[in-house]
Amino acid sequence: MNKVPDINEDKMAADEVSPNKANLLGLSAAQLGDFFESAGEKRFRGTQVLKWIHQRGVIDFDQMTDLSRSLREKLHQIAEIRLPEVVRQDDAEDGVIKWLIETGSSGCIEMVYIPEGDRGTLCVSSQVGCALDCSFCATGKQGFNRDLTAAEVIGQMWIAVNTLGGFGAQSERRVTNTVMMGMGEPLLNFDNVVAAMSLMLDDNGYGLSKRRVTLSTAGMVPMLDRLADVIDVSLAVSLHAPNDELRDQLVPINKKYPIAMLLASANNYLEKLPDKRRKITIEYTLMDQVNDRPQHAKELADLLRDTPCKINLIPFNPFPNTEYRRVSNNSLYRFKEILINAGYTVTVRTTRGDDIAAACGQLAGAVNDRTRRGERYRDKALKSEKLLEKSTSSEEQLVRIIHA
Ligand code: SF4
């Protein structure tokens, strides 16, 4: 069934910028405090507005009844709460929901809700397309347009919660977990992703525990090295191969940041967290005759020996024109047994929502690939020292804001 939910008739497309108005949707508590202070108001107004938006789902200033009438009128003049626009919603037979979300002239992104028992996981996108071009991923094939804003990232959460029964309601369908595992490499959109995740964790926002907010990376080591300095969330590493030779083919960023470097960075991330019991999730997509042989499983078991981790095996989900095939059940079983016998906790990701192309690795959206920009971005990713230099000052700013 396809339908467009009635979220907010007044919402504007992402490109419809109001140059004189700040979009408050993607601002963290500290950033909202700064906004109100710079407008000559008390900082605590930021917390009030954050609660209205992210706890109660109210995006009309006139309904924020603990703000004075004069402040509400002032907010109308200087600010707005602008959601991304849902252009399509697909409901799968197994309860999975996929949304297609407009990002203005850059195209559309997708996000997916996966209910499972008393859990409801929202798979959130971070970029319009992806520059990393992993060979087995539908998103990578779409090219790249731009990073999502923090408002567009947290806006996905707002839309999902609103659609699933509303804010504050005891709905049977709830978002209990989020994974930054949709379209895009989240660490290449570091500041906006961190700001959005801080709202997911904020008790005045969505109030999710740090174990229930997961960032998944293909291996942007310089940004991963700094992640624990600004936020404490669960980490997933998209590994997909037990050696550099094979991973270079599947995940090209591996040529820049090979496996040893990536695992060292992931281990450093864990070591910086206060809770020493935390583990990394290793994501391993299994493709027939590519990375599913017993020797691959044994190599993987040896490789991860010093990394506190659990392993999530993902049977490859085919998409149009892909050269890869899904792993056979026999190979999957054998691979899993080898890892279990080596002492690992292993889960197998059930394929969900494949009747609406919402399964892992199938998200494609509708990216207006700006090839030259995509090429420049890819270069930027591969020359990440440069990117790091540029991002360091903003990361430091964010550290100050979060810890203020
Ligand atoms: S797997 Fe992730 S990092 Fe690789 S192309 Fe797809 S979205 Fe990008």
Top CATH class of the largest domain: Alpha Beta
What count of structural domains?
2
Q: What is the averaged pLDDT score?
A: 87
What is the overall silhouette? globular
Termini Cα gap: 46 Å
CATH topology of the largest domain: TIM Barrel
Report the C-alpha radius of gyration, rounded. Answer: 21 Å
Q: Detail the poorly predicted runs.
A: 1-16, 391-404
What can you see in these coordinates?
With about 400 residues, this protein is of the alpha/beta class. It has 13 helices and 15 strands. The radius of gyration is 21 Å and the shape is globular. Mean pLDDT is about 85; it is low at about 1-15 and about 390-404.
Write the layout of secondary structure elements.
Elements: E1 22-23, H1 29-38, H2 44-55, H3 69-78, E2 79-80, E3 85-91, E4 97-102, E5 107-116, E6 119-123, E7 127-129, H4 138-141, E8 144-147, H5 150-163, E9 177-180, H6 190-201, E10 213-217, H7 221-230, E11 234-238, H8 244-250, H9 259-272, E12 280-286, H10 294-303, E13 309-315, H11 329-341, E14 346-348, E15 366-367, H12 371-382, H13 384-403
Helix pairs in contact: 1-2, 5-6, 6-13, 7-9, 7-13, 10-11, 12-13
